[in-house]
Amino acid sequence: MPDFEFDGNDLARLAALAYSPALTTRSQLAGSHRVRRAGAGIDFLDYRNYVPGDDIRRIDWTVFARLRQPFIRVLEHEETLFISLLVDVSRSMAAGSPRSKAALACQLACGLAAIAMSAGDHVTAATFSDTLAPPLRNLRGRNMLPRLISTLRLAPTSGTADLAAIARSFCREVRHRGLVVILSDCLGAGDAESAITTLTSARFKVLVVQILDPIDRGEGLTGSIRLRDSETGRVLDMNASDERIREYRRRLDAYCENLQSACVRRGQRYLLADTRDAWLTLLASGLRQQGLLQ
Amino acid sequence: MTFASPLAFWFLAIAIPIAALFFFRVRPTEIIVPTLALWERFVRSSELHGFGVRFGRWPTLLIQLLIVALLVLALSDPGKTRARASVIVLDDSATMQTREPNGRTRFDEARSAAIEQIHAAPHGVEAIILAGEPVRILTGRADSPAAQESLVAALAPRDVNADLPRAIRLASVRAQESRATEIVAITDKPALAAPSDPQTTWQTIGHPQPNLAIAGLRRSDDGRAITITLHQQGFTNEPAVATISADGREIDREELRLNGPTIEFDLRPPQAGDARFEVRVEPTDALPLDNVAFGVWTNIPTAHVLLVTTGNLPLLAALSQPNIEVKTIRPTQWPSSQPADVIVLDAINADLPDLENGRFLVFGGRDPLNLAINSAPATDQRPVKWTPSHPLLRDVDLLTWRVRRTATFGPSPKARPIVSSQDAALILESELNGSPEAPIREILVNFELKDSNLPTRAGFPIFIWNAVQRLLNRSDEQFALSYTTGSPVRAPIQSQTELRAFDPTGAACDVISEHHAAVLLKPQRAGFYRIDHDGQSRDIAINWLPNSAGVLSDQNTTSAPVAPASVAALGAPLSLWSRILIAVAALMLVEMALFSLNILRLG
After folding, report:
1. Which of A100, A173, B84, B274 fits as disulfide partner to A96, beta carbons 3.0 to 4.6 Å?
2. Which CATH architecture has domain A8-25+81-289?
3. Are B41 and A252 a contacting pair at CB < 8 A?
4. Has residue B9 been placed in a domain?
């Protein structure tokens, strides 16, 4: 179970953050995200000529009295945002220093959810390892945040994550298209690129937050060591020479770049996080740079 | 299967640190990683799956333990019929000359048993120890089995008693030094309480047989006859005949009936001095050796003693002994014209002139030669310090002596105290000039006889005899009829030149000169020995006298003969296959060490 902290102070720090309206999707549900599109909002956008069929309640009678010609007040449309959070709680996420990757993933998920809930957006959250856990659907309002936190805290870190299979399950479970945030180390058995393809094909917008810890980067490995695959239990006895560490890092960097380019090619976003990073910093700077938050 | 070196199994303890190192060795640091995929693409994999990880190293441990087991097995030198290492104690004493009903002597059978033991051991026995006095080691492991066998085959029993306790102790020490596992004692004597480490196996030879033995040969109490002591068993109430002969001529004959286990009787000695004689008893038995005794009769010269006293009947009675002729005078009759070898002064306080040339036994009074110093008298004294082996005190019991008042003799540089009480010297002796090499001139008894209980003690006449003999520079050995085998023989001979001695067969034997005596070093044969010195020749007789009554019948012959003890040699050259096994195991160890180093180097 991920052991992470998330309290009221963190919420205050998140108050200044909001999702970019570009992430909204057309739907019948009104939200808090104003878009430059006519709609059923409150704020005035423009006038246009009345055409038969328009709701006469939207005729601006003041203008009609002055010009004797009916004009319709066009208001700014406010749309809702659907955010889905997929948190990897497989065994590989249990590792990490100074905190586990799963803990950082949960903190980022809570932060992203809190930002969305503050704006009245819909949040769907689910953990996954071998399978996709039953998602918490349509979490709206800050009062739903404790439920999310407790659910994440109770999620067991076990199993093997197959991102491609999880993506397929998610597409079947969730109908509202929106932003899907995958919080994982993406080093499990499944093919992360295939998962991105699956989600984008289902018209989800995808943000991949790849969380690595120093060990994943090959730091601190020296001497005669035994590497144990956290998910499969397989071991590898080796002597961690500098040459080998350099080779490993080169291959890891290539893997991460490959994943990032896969996201970029599909118009999606990718963020590389480290367990040593502060999660607020990641949200405030990392996701802002990605244009996800404003 | 037996093992020549079972102690090698202690090496199995090596398995403990090996196992401990296996379980507690420094293992590589285990690090959990999300995936091995990236590593496996460029690191040569030595991975093992979960089951393999857990149990994959066990074969290594098993192989190591197997190698240790092989080494231990090889070092223990197993063999299908491997015998144990042993030390043989072979009794070559006189009783082993007993002839058994089958016509063979006990020593013949013991010798055969010892040779069987040697044959049973591929590398010979650790040692063969002869139990006859003096105990000696016949052969050790340095000799080959063939050499050991030839040494045993050439052995003959000696005319000596056995010292089995000493032989077993020596064998035990030898066995512990050589890590032999067993002592095999081959003897006709009963088993002793031997040390348990290593175990002693008694292989008893012989059967009980009747025996008649001459167990003692000495002068009679009056010194005029030869007293013979016989031991018999199995001849009770049967007649026997003892004869004494010299130069082939019978001197005396005694017909007697053996009505007890010990019989003592006298025989007339030869008339001439320094005459060799031979005592023989019949009927003869399975051990003829103890039916014959040899002796040399020497006439003891009479000692002339002049007693100067005012009247002392106890002293006069004590001096009235065979070979002592006593003349008594009063102090007022001094000087006397009587010849005197020894002058006894009984509490004479007056000055006696012309005393320079005599030998004196003085009881209180004055020291005629002034060899002692004057000291204060002491009262109520008893002897507290003396040397029992001193010739003056031989067979004298001093524990009951009481002295009411001492005289005034005190030890000086010339006078040595022989017996001392708490406060004074009771008996002193001195040469004329204080030289130990000079003959004793004076024996001072530091009390008057009337002031002590000495005259009433049984040892008083013996003390008087000893004192006279001491002053005349005589010893019992000088007039001994015979000596015994197995111990040094000290024959009083005043020799100025090199001594030579010959045993009964005429062969030269070891002899040394020691302070007016010729010492034969532990003669092994009974019979007449000849000692040549200064152009003269002297005969002495040496007998084997049994040291116990039933020497031939105490053996435990009811037990079945002990099977030949298995004999082996720890530390003997290992067998060929053991050497091969050790070489293979050593190679495997080296290979394993190199493999481990290689693993560490390659990672």
Report:
1. A100
2. 3-Layer(aba) Sandwich (3.40)
3. no
4. yes
